[in-house]
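Predict fold of Arylsulfotransferase; 505 aa.
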Amino acid sequence: MRNYISAAAFAALLSPPVLALYERNYHSTSLAIQPLNILERAASYDPNNTTLFLVCPQGEVVSQPAPTIYDSHGELVWASPNIGLCDDLNYQTYNGQGYLTMWVGSGNGATGLQTGSGTAIMLNSNYEIVQNVSAVNPGLTDLHEFHIVQPENRTALVTAFNPIPLDLTSVGGLANGWYLNSIIQEVDIATGRILFNWTSVDHIALAESYNNISVTGEGTNSSFAWDPVHINSIDKDREGNYLISARNCQTIYKLDKNGTIIWRLGGKTSDFKAQGEGDTQFHWQHHVRWREDETQISVFDDGAGVLDTTVVIDETVATGKYLELDQTTMTVSLVQRYFPTLNTGPSFAEGSIEPYGNTVIVGYGSNPWVTAHDLDSGDVLFSAVIGPNNSSLWLGGISNYRVFQTSTLEFVGHPTQPPAVAISDGDVYVSWNGATHVSSYTLLTGSTASTVTKKVTSVVKTGFETKMSMLGGDAFISVTALAANGTTLGKSAVYRTSDGSIVSR
Ligand SMILES: *[C@@H]1O[C@H](CO)[C@@H](O)[C@H](O)[C@H]1NC(C)=O
Ligand SMILES: *[C@@H]1O[C@H](CO)[C@@H](O)[C@H](O)[C@H]1NC(C)=O
Ligand SMILES: *[C@@H]1O[C@H](CO)[C@@H](O)[C@H](O)[C@H]1NC(C)=O
Ligand SMILES: *[C@@H]1O[C@H](CO)[C@@H](O)[C@H](O)[C@H]1NC(C)=O
Ligand SMILES: *[C@@H]1O[C@H](CO)[C@@H](O)[C@H](O)[C@H]1NC(C)=O
Ligand SMILES: *[C@@H]1O[C@H](CO)[C@@H](O)[C@H](O)[C@H]1NC(C)=O
Ligand SMILES: *[C@@H]1O[C@H](CO)[C@@H](O)[C@H](O)[C@H]1NC(C)=O
Ligand SMILES: *[C@@H]1O[C@H](CO)[C@@H](O)[C@H](O)[C@H]1NC(C)=O
Ligand SMILES: *[C@@H]1O[C@H](CO)[C@@H](O)[C@H](O)[C@H]1NC(C)=O
Ligand SMILES: *[C@@H]1O[C@H](CO)[C@@H](O)[C@H](O)[C@H]1NC(C)=O
Ligand SMILES: *[C@@H]1O[C@H](CO)[C@@H](O)[C@H](O)[C@H]1NC(C)=O
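Predicted 3D structure, encoded as tokens:
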């Protein structure tokens, strides 16, 4: 049953930003981060500690929004000190090489109520920005999609939104109304050339939208344009056709490479008939991708939506789903529904579902939850929340657009900055933001700044920041970072023990 909540009632759900108190601080760096709080972790999950989760937490209580990597014990691995607000942090292959990719810019990325204006960027394993990718004319690149497309991995699919004047009387709006045009583009990454340019106004009927103008009042001017379609993901199949998710039509569209709509799944005029017992419906969905040799799709079924300031709740729980599509008989059936266990509830925006090996990672978007499931059985192997237990935008807190996974077997982060050291109360604290393969640290000392060679102690890395006793330390110290095989990966500056100041690099 659909349930509308007024803007005032919705605002009342948003409690004061007390969650900020939960931020974690360190001695050796000024980073302040909401930790990944582990709720469940099966003994069999990630036994070799290779998993890395890629996220962009943000919201009122996140004082330093940043592209962020956590390990599966909830420890910080990397948070960019300078990139700021981002969405959609991922690890993608371009031209045979792996890159960290994300959207950066401005806009209300925190709630997904609006679209963002910015650019997509690509970082190498030294965390240096090596490429910008933008949708061009009209508008800037929106936050919702930056998808490097297989098999060539040389082009990217991006979204853009652009308000245009349009007669909206057929849907209860103004004759001189404004329409927020959903645009998708395929961009050649190296040259910036636009290879495909498609806009919703040319193809999707106004009546397909669930964004009811009588409820939202949108469309009165260009900065309050009616957002009837709201494309939030794009995929491409091996024949070159596109698969797009239009949240506000609650419809997934397949487009021919010539732009014609081939079929609709879901929404008011679905071309598919449901088969079997499973619930194949989705509401306000995100992150639609072809899976299993293009016989199935995965979709994050939010279950709720926000239209301007109106919250619409269609389901009691957000879930990731795999649906099997038979494009000959035009039938759809549920393959698997990935239910969360501890934190449950609808998400009103954002979210993702992505397989990794024999697991499926679900990100709950406006609820900053992460679950990892067995791909086949759907069993929860791991669940966590960014920030404190029960953190949710429903309760005033944190959101995270999508969650992706990589592993230390494929991503080797090697920062250009050296390990950072702080000295406090006879202890040495060391961290190395972004270094993925440090196994231990060795403390070296000397009586002069140029003779810091005597080994004091070696300790196993215990998390983002490792504490060592300075007992036995002389006037100057430095710390080296070592890999499990004993290789020295990096060395800190030399520090003066009397006041903790840096003497030399
Ligand atoms: C969060 O919930 C888990 C599972 O109920 C519990 O073990 C843990 O102590 C809680 N953590 C905090 C910080 O409340
Ligand atoms: C963990 O590492 C060991 C030793 O390298 C390897 O044999 C094993 O397959 C790994 N396990 C997983 C689940 O990756
Ligand atoms: C994985 O990390 C946990 C927690 O830090 C640790 O107890 C365990 O020994 C680690 N496992 C391996 C194989 O390093
Ligand atoms: C494209 O990227 C995918 C996923 O990372 C990878 O499996 C594939 O090998 C890449 N193809 C090329 C030609 O680099
Ligand atoms: C990315 O774009 C910005 C702004 O246009 C520019 O300053 C920067 O040099 C670009 N970086 C790369 C690597 O292209
Ligand atoms: C993309 O299409 C829009 C709408 O038709 C048009 O205004 C714009 O100029 C096109 N952009 C490019 C780069 O072709
Ligand atoms: C839009 O909302 C109005 C007011 O709640 C309602 O009367 C009308 O039936 C709705 N229209 C559609 C198409 O749902
Ligand atoms: C656009 O309309 C909204 C809603 O009525 C209003 O709050 C806003 O001030 C208008 N903006 C402009 C530029 O007229
Ligand atoms: C465009 O694609 C549609 C759907 O596949 C097809 O029916 C139509 O013939 C195509 N048009 C052209 C001009 O190729
Ligand atoms: C979430 O909050 C509810 C109500 O306060 C509580 O019963 C539940 O245990 C909490 N969940 C976790 C994971 O802490
Ligand atoms: C030692 O480990 C590091 C980090 O994993 C790796 O880069 C390096 O190649 C390894 N060296 C040897 C000799 O195996």
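Residues 420-504 form a domain with the Immunoglobulin-like fold (CATH 2.60.40.10).
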